[in-house]
Amino acid sequence: MKKVLVLLVCVAVLLVGYIVLDKSGIELPSFGAKKDYEQGEAFYDNKEYDKAAELYKKACDGGEMFGCGKLGYMYEKGKGVEKNEQKAVELYKKVCDGGEVRGCYNLGVMYEYGNGVEKNFSKAVELYKKACDGGSMRGCYNLGVMYEEGEGVEKNEQKAVELYKKACDGGNMDGCRNLVVMYEKAME
Residue 53: helix, strand or coil by DSSP? Predict the structure, then answer.
């Protein structure tokens, strides 16, 4: 009896959670979307890009943000689909808006280099900051580069050092390398 009651409480908590998330406007993945994404990964790993793209699209349509992100990458690179950087940008935006920081990072790269969108360093900085704040060490590294170079923000080598250190502490080797270079520069 006690186990049944605990099970009912758990189910009720899950249902309430889904209702709250649904009303929040956050797109919820369908139960099959994660499976589609995982199957897409297997095809991608086997270099069967056309099959992977189909499954990523299905996963994305079901609300799986990783599927949308991977499909965006495939459009960006022209793997399994015709290369279409504008479509990649749309998908990365959907992923970023869906709360997945890798989408913000990828979208930042597109804005930094003008791939599929007009080059916009300020927008790239905004997206790298969002990615960095969300735990993307690549986002922190790229944001550090923007501060070091003064692209999209006022040049600030101290801020660049802070961001490189954060990236390095988080395991990003490019951040470590640039941190060493900045320290060496300061010692000259």
Answer: helix
